[in-house]
């Protein structure tokens, strides 16, 4: 029976010993959500049934009544009065949680129980928002994984998530679907580009949003965004900058006063997003470039790695301000992003040299400075960036060449990591296959049992290798990142 | 009025040789502020900035520039709401006096913090002549500790000899060594204490040429390298290496004006990176090099 099932689930939770500070209240809504979902599943397993609106209202009323009952019973317990479900449900697979007593789901792929849990959670989120019974399909892993990284997902680009979603019945906004596809196929890449694209898509979502009756915009919109974020996470794991942007948006939405009219609220949110993009990305880039130009002298030989939008911007600005320098672009397979950087710099007229990363120790004696971009700056001063960056910093240190990292403050993240294994991203292993002179050696790698292909995306550089971090707040040493985080949180 | 200012500054320096150059500069700036005739707040600020530049030209030391900037920030810290300019000026003068009093006491605070790190029977190495280090050693001697001091000669101005004389007057056993003998003497010493002309954002320091060598040697021998500096010497620069130090600090003002090729001139200052420094003793407390940035953010932002 339903009650028995719920009791069993409770016991399982206690056994696992996973304590959560919102435990009892979460369990309360869990129960009723699971009740609704189990009853729904019994009724229609297929994904294209539309419930008539009348029963929707009924279910809603039922759920409300149950919620009130739970709330009343919980008054006696130590938990404070339960908030709206938006504050209880966590952002999916977010590694930015301050109370980290659990590992985030996206790095527990090797535990089948966690995978099942994730599937259930995705389902639950959909139900919570709209009551149309559709599942965001779980993207399946592809190929054998190296055992050290078996806790991470590894997807194939040939199987995008969007193929499994039937368009008419989808609850995902089309601009989000498009964005997810762009992420998973690598059309939109680079942390700034991804964050800006995300915010634009969210603007579209907010514009097309209309508050359903009996719901408040501030709570409902946040709930609406959750499945979108799950979907995007399935397409490609969220970056730290995207995580911070999402946190900001959610905060702005939940701060909208309830008496605010819908049109006003929407306008306000759109202008908030525009401000965020302007302040944290565009103007920050200008400020950083002003600071960085002081460090570029005439006669400098500057080394850059890969394609960082910020570093390219700095170099172009310095060139316009008549500084005489030349650039060495270091590139690496399989992404070969350096070619894009090379194109942009040569178009401006900057003298460039192009090498692959294997030639690094050969050209370093010529270099006077190294400029690197960052994907995120962690709270213990470590720099998370494209794989290969820590290698460059290490060799530069050995040759006593100063290493400068340029990073906007919105990429600063509360996470602490000391190695590149714990939390990373595995790209499509098929990218490593290359055809030279008509022969493709690794074509049949899946059939060889003992062979694994590893295509890492990020790595982590310790602060001893980095001499200077340039942010829009000024030049700081790598160890001062927690100070900036503290100052920012005080500001907010 | 510029010449008057420079005269006043020079007089201050000659009157009290024990006073830090930055303190003298701030006294002169305060005097300048009192005598200033401008009609607007903006004009006053401009005049002050101009005055600081003039002082920097006279005495090209990092401390004067950092002290001047801090003075300017301190007196205009909170918004001056009085509509009457003279009232504003009075407030600024008051704050200036307060600032001056605070920094005159800073050397004593530093010495109080540092002398406990000198143990009985210690052998200390120091570089050139620093009044803060002298105060530290004075305090330690007054605390009835027995220690020996090795001082480098510190050419080209033989400032080390003056330091040795001052120490002998305090009855502290002192030995003068050649600048080139730092590597030789390092295994005998227990700790190294130097002063600083400026402390930069990265936590590194500017000091008399030869300090960087000493720091590298002490790191190789695993001896602690302590720096004593007052907080008004914190400056908003971030040099990456020796090349990156601005010329106006490395060379004296007159050298900059007359020299044809700076490559042939000897710099007076070198930069010691934070990785070689163990601890910094300041009137804000005992700091690690990474904490300097924290303090600077608090002071300047």
UniProtKB/TrEMBL annotation, chain A:
<protein>
    <recommendedName>
        <fullName>Translation initiation factor eIF2B subunit delta</fullName>
    </recommendedName>
</protein>
<keyword id="KW-0648">Protein biosynthesis</keyword>
<dbReference type="GO" id="GO:0005851">
    <property type="term" value="C:eukaryotic translation initiation factor 2B complex"/>
</dbReference>
<dbReference type="GO" id="GO:0007417">
    <property type="term" value="P:central nervous system development"/>
</dbReference>
<dbReference type="InterPro" id="IPR042529">
    <property type="entry name" value="IF_2B-like_C"/>
</dbReference>
<feature type="compositionally biased region" description="Basic and acidic residues">
    <location>
        <begin position="18"/>
        <end position="35"/>
    </location>
</feature>
<comment type="subunit">
    <text>Component of the translation initiation factor 2B (eIF2B) complex which is a heterodecamer of two sets of five different subunits: alpha, beta, gamma, delta and epsilon. Subunits alpha, beta and delta comprise a regulatory subcomplex and subunits epsilon and gamma comprise a catalytic subcomplex. Within the complex, the hexameric regulatory complex resides at the center, with the two heterodimeric catalytic subcomplexes bound on opposite sides.</text>
</comment>
<keyword id="KW-0396">Initiation factor</keyword>
<comment type="function">
    <text>Acts as a component of the translation initiation factor 2B (eIF2B) complex, which catalyzes the exchange of GDP for GTP on eukaryotic initiation factor 2 (eIF2) gamma subunit. Its guanine nucleotide exchange factor activity is repressed when bound to eIF2 complex phosphorylated on the alpha subunit, thereby limiting the amount of methionyl-initiator methionine tRNA available to the ribosome and consequently global translation is repressed.</text>
</comment>
<comment type="similarity">
    <text>Belongs to the eIF-2B alpha/beta/delta subunits family.</text>
</comment>
<dbReference type="GO" id="GO:0005829">
    <property type="term" value="C:cytosol"/>
</dbReference>
<feature type="region of interest" description="Disordered">
    <location>
        <begin position="1"/>
        <end position="98"/>
    </location>
</feature>
<dbReference type="GO" id="GO:0005085">
    <property type="term" value="F:guanyl-nucleotide exchange factor activity"/>
</dbReference>
<feature type="compositionally biased region" description="Low complexity">
    <location>
        <begin position="37"/>
        <end position="47"/>
    </location>
</feature>
<dbReference type="GO" id="GO:0048513">
    <property type="term" value="P:animal organ development"/>
</dbReference>
<feature type="compositionally biased region" description="Basic and acidic residues">
    <location>
        <begin position="51"/>
        <end position="80"/>
    </location>
</feature>
<dbReference type="InterPro" id="IPR037171">
    <property type="entry name" value="NagB/RpiA_transferase-like"/>
</dbReference>
<keyword id="KW-0963">Cytoplasm</keyword>
<feature type="compositionally biased region" description="Basic residues">
    <location>
        <begin position="7"/>
        <end position="17"/>
    </location>
</feature>
<feature type="compositionally biased region" description="Low complexity">
    <location>
        <begin position="82"/>
        <end position="94"/>
    </location>
</feature>
<dbReference type="GO" id="GO:0003743">
    <property type="term" value="F:translation initiation factor activity"/>
</dbReference>
<dbReference type="Pfam" id="PF01008">
    <property type="entry name" value="IF-2B"/>
</dbReference>
Automatic annotation (TrEMBL), chain B:
<dbReference type="InterPro" id="IPR042528">
    <property type="entry name" value="elF-2B_alpha_N"/>
</dbReference>
<keyword id="KW-0648">Protein biosynthesis</keyword>
<comment type="function">
    <text>Acts as a component of the translation initiation factor 2B (eIF2B) complex, which catalyzes the exchange of GDP for GTP on eukaryotic initiation factor 2 (eIF2) gamma subunit. Its guanine nucleotide exchange factor activity is repressed when bound to eIF2 complex phosphorylated on the alpha subunit, thereby limiting the amount of methionyl-initiator methionine tRNA available to the ribosome and consequently global translation is repressed.</text>
</comment>
<dbReference type="GO" id="GO:0005829">
    <property type="term" value="C:cytosol"/>
</dbReference>
<keyword id="KW-0396">Initiation factor</keyword>
<keyword id="KW-0963">Cytoplasm</keyword>
<dbReference type="GO" id="GO:0003743">
    <property type="term" value="F:translation initiation factor activity"/>
</dbReference>
<dbReference type="GO" id="GO:0005851">
    <property type="term" value="C:eukaryotic translation initiation factor 2B complex"/>
</dbReference>
<comment type="subunit">
    <text>Component of the translation initiation factor 2B (eIF2B) complex which is a heterodecamer of two sets of five different subunits: alpha, beta, gamma, delta and epsilon. Subunits alpha, beta and delta comprise a regulatory subcomplex and subunits epsilon and gamma comprise a catalytic subcomplex. Within the complex, the hexameric regulatory complex resides at the center, with the two heterodimeric catalytic subcomplexes bound on opposite sides.</text>
</comment>
<dbReference type="Pfam" id="PF01008">
    <property type="entry name" value="IF-2B"/>
</dbReference>
<dbReference type="InterPro" id="IPR051501">
    <property type="entry name" value="eIF2B_alpha/beta/delta"/>
</dbReference>
<dbReference type="InterPro" id="IPR037171">
    <property type="entry name" value="NagB/RpiA_transferase-like"/>
</dbReference>
<comment type="similarity">
    <text>Belongs to the eIF-2B alpha/beta/delta subunits family.</text>
</comment>
<protein>
    <recommendedName>
        <fullName>Translation initiation factor eIF2B subunit alpha</fullName>
    </recommendedName>
</protein>
<dbReference type="GO" id="GO:0005085">
    <property type="term" value="F:guanyl-nucleotide exchange factor activity"/>
</dbReference>
<dbReference type="InterPro" id="IPR042529">
    <property type="entry name" value="IF_2B-like_C"/>
</dbReference>
<dbReference type="InterPro" id="IPR000649">
    <property type="entry name" value="IF-2B-related"/>
</dbReference>
